[in-house]
Amino acid sequence: DGGITQSPKYLFRKEGQNVTLSCEQNLNHDAMYWYRQDPGQGLRLIYYSQIVNDFQKGDIAEGYSVSREKKESFPLTVTSAQKNPTAFYLCASSGTGYEKLFFGSGTQLSVL
Amino acid sequence: AQTVTQSQPEMSVQEAETVTLSCTYDTSENNYYLFWYKQPPSRQMILVIRQEAYKQQNATENRFSVNFQKAAKSFSLKISDSQLGDTAMYFCPPTGNQFYFGTGTSLTVIP
Lengths: 112, 111
Fold this sequence. Notes:
The complex is a heterodimer. Chain A is mostly beta strands.
């Protein structure tokens, strides 16, 4: 079945450590997105990519980095520069017409 | 650029009653879609209903319907015969290259 897979489901980060969240899709979608969600809050856009080897910053890109080397994959790295990384992270993808957004099941990142 | 305003941060409704969630938006797109997504306590995002902006007819999906006022940039969601499973956060992003979500409305269905 087609869909988006995020891993891991739970992730813990130590002080000063970089961690990478995985997002893979087999929907043949060009556009992919990363959102951050704090408890009881909405979704805020971190980065998005409309095509392989290209991506743009969203509203809260500081302290995060991404790559888009393959159409299927859009990993997010939470760097040590992100001082408050504890949040729920959602990955999503969309076809070229933006007619629907498909979501992964999310990764909960916590700081040890 | 896109913006979304959901003026009701929290709402509650009795089971089997009807509730309407409001949403206003702004977008620079000419052709676009509007969506209502729900996020239950499981935190999985689920598409509830979709409206194509060029269609005048309001979308309906079982107990869910929308009131789309394009000139006013208003897009409300009506839930009829509310069920306990409707308890969730609801978001109304307009389409575009960024899918801006806003702060959402938390709906609680009371038994």
